[in-house]
Amino acid sequence: MNSSQSAKAHCAWAFADAPIFERKIRISTQYMPLPLTNEEKEIFQLARPHLQVMSNELHTVEVVGFCLRLMQSVGGDRHIVIPAAILHDTGWAKIPEKVSQKIRIPDGEKESIKVHEEISALIAELILRDVNYDRAYIDEIIAIIIGHDSRRQPLSLNDKIVKDGDKLSRFSKRFLPIWPQWGDGAEAKDLFGALSHGVKNWFFLSDSRKMATHELRHRMAESRSRLENL
Prior knowledge:
By secondary structure, the chain is mostly helical. It has one domain (3-228): Hypothetical protein af1432 (Orthogonal Bundle), CATH 1.10.3210. 60% of the residues lie in helices and 0% in strands. The chain contains 11 helices and no strands. It has helices at 3-11, 38-47, 56-74, 78-87, 97-104, 110-130, 135-145, 157-168, 179-182, 191-201, 206-228. Helix 1 (3-11) packs across helix 6 (110-130). The longest helix is centred in the last third of the chain and has 23 residues, at 206-228. It is globular. Residues 12-29 have low confidence and may be disordered.
């Protein structure tokens, strides 16, 4: 059974109601100043209805942005990395709150964590098929999505970029204030301590650690400036 078949087997219950996507839906584009190709923009447009929970549209834009930056220095295949980054968290929109709470708490249940990955993988395949995406890329995209949180060892350079881009979003100016409230571990009172720990422990690529260190220094400087201006 391949990754996409596994997702379908485990997540059919999530699609009993509501269409998977609808081309006519128009969501705000306030988070989208990204240099995407027309094909990537179409994928993002179809993903948007599934990114309207837990600030996931902003999170996704930040992830894509960091992935683009990482590829400039480490390489990787854009045809795989960017669709995987756009679609990796689309499954949250299909998960009941009582289930997602178990996933979002620190050290969330491993089996529950897989739920949003598997649903995201299924949504991703449907969207990619809808835009007639090259089948040669889809299998690797799905494989990355289906283990982007739960799988400890990356499958490839492309996987490392997506995993690291996902974590780097926590350091961004726009998403950092949201991340602790999202429920993924850090207490606001020690936010910078949690991020400092993350610089050392979250990343697979040395370029990602450098990027995280740079972003963290900026966030700490901004915090000091706000305190001084009170």
